[in-house]
Structure to design on (117 residues):
């Protein structure tokens, strides 16, 4: 999500600590909900996909759609349209570059994780 944020106009982008916290809470919350109540989890995902108005929700929405291209399974459709990018002030023509940078960042994080273990 940091890569997406950095592609946004500075005045629109949230603070980096907000992005990191939102990503962590997103992952932990979705895992817990999926384990405790899979039907409610599915309903929540459908509702979020139907109306991702909040800026951080929109960023998470885009990040989830990029994940399958990084080899990570995700339960949302990987199809992004121009409106998804434009809602964040990002030119849709920059999407491929952003996805490539996200892939590169993901590979660096994986290398770091392997080196640490």
């Amino acid at each position: 999500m940091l890569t997406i944020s950095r592609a946004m106009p500075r005045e629109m982008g949230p603070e980096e600590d907000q992005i990191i916290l939102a990503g962590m809470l997103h992952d932990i919350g979705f895992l817990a909900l999926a384990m405790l109540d899979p039907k409610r989890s599915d309903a929540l995902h459908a509702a979020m996909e139907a109306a991702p108005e909040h800026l951080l929700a929109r960023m998470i929405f885009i990040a989830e759609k990029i994940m399958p291209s990084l080899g990570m399974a995700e339960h949302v459709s990987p199809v992004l349209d121009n409106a998804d990018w434009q809602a964040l002030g990002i030119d849709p023509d920059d999407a491929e570059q952003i996805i490539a940078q996200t892939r590169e960042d993901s590979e660096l994080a994986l290398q770091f994780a392997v080196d640490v273990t």
User: Anything to note?
Assistant: The first helix runs from residue 2 to 7.
